[in-house]
Amino acid sequence: QVRLVQSGGGLVQAGGSLRLSCAASGDTICGSAIDWYRQASGKERELVAEVTSGGSTTYVDSVQGRFSISRDNAKNTMYLQMNSLKPEDTAVYYCKRLCGSLWYWGQGTQVAISS
């Protein structure tokens, strides 16, 4: 069983930065493949960034150049660094990681950007 715990959300002003964490624990190894999603109020969940099992990293156009994914293997944690935040980045952010052969979701963390 795997548990993903997210942290790092909060309220910041436009132009600010946040770093979201997605920490894995359990008896199954999680690799570097990760998807970061977000869901704004009243909207569908959208994929904003991902690292594939092959190591390719992609970002949706709206966050390209502002968001970046990194990892700390020792902590089994992956991060989403978010810079130059905009009010339209306001959403609940979710991580999804491949652990063994299954995908697991984090609990979500709220990000709110004030103008």
Describe the protein in words.
With 115 residues, the chain is mainly beta. It is 0% helix and 60% strand. It is built from no helices and 11 strands. The protein has strands spanning 2-7, 10-13, 18-26, 30-39, 46-51, 57-59, 67-72, 77-82, 91-99, 102-105, 109-114. The strands form 2 sheets. Strands 2, 4, 5, 6, 9, 10 and 11 form a 7-stranded mixed beta sheet that branches. A hairpin with a 4-residue loop joins strand 7 and strand 8. It is globular and about 45 Å long. The chain starts with a strand and ends with a strand.
Concise account of the structure shown:
The protein has 115 residues and is mainly β. It has no helices and 11 strands.
How does the SSE layout of this entry go?
Layout: E1 2-7, E2 10-13, E3 18-26, E4 30-39, E5 46-51, E6 57-59, E7 67-72, E8 77-82, E9 91-99, E10 102-105, E11 109-114
Parallel strand pairs: 2-11
Antiparallel strand pairs: 1-3, 3-8, 4-5, 4-9, 5-6, 7-8, 9-10, 9-11
Mean pLDDT: 96
Number of extended strands = 11
Number of helices: 0
Helix content: under 10%
Strand content: over 45%
State the main characteristics.
about 120 residues
